[in-house]
Predict the structure.
Amino acid sequence: MVSSLRSTVCGMTSRIVPHAGPVGGEQDASISKSGALRAAIFGMNDGLVSNLSLIFGVAGSGFAGRVVVIAGFAGLLAGAFSMGSGEYVSMKVQREVYEQLIHKEAHEIATQPEEEQRELARMYEAKGIDPETAERISVALMKDPQVALEAHAREELGIDMKQGLGSPWAAAGSSFVMFSIGAAVPLLPFLFTSGETAIVVSAGLSGVTLFAVGGAMTILTGRGVLFSGARMLAIGAVAAAITYGVGSLVGVAVG
């Protein structure tokens, strides 16, 4: 399994091209690997797009404003609990898999250190280090069991133990809260007004928020703010337009 993963990574790196534009300072890899940050940004995006689509579908059908509000609150709660529980289970399982792999690696280091030392040396050789230097590095690292475990986890399993394995509760909590915030945006206007006024205000407020969320994704992707914001705005607009149209057709059919 490890060898296949390594082959995949090698194939990916062979297709990497230089970043188009200046890069400001050293890149912080921990930002892109943060499960809580990822869950927060995408949780808000999912909440906004899914509830915007739901609300516009119901509004397009011609139902009264209170029906739209009920549907919006139901979509908010259902989606938030679904996102939160899904993130928790996903990160919990991922963490358990990593812990199991690290446990097995620790057992191998304790029971067959010579073989593990040679394996570490071969991995460094595969990175282009000459055999003699790779041998010295692997021998030095294997003197301390904790350092040896961290080296094997990083080189063999692709796990950086110093960065931690991620918190399922943090990911679930941020996903739940941010989904709720995103889902509340298109719903707010319908709490104070109704009809076409609520639809127009909801569309405008949601559009601004979609652009902002798309721009915030540049924290993870490094893409331009205008590009990311416009892309997210377009996705949300298409989803809302389709569900509004479908809702209108359903409303006419039911009527």
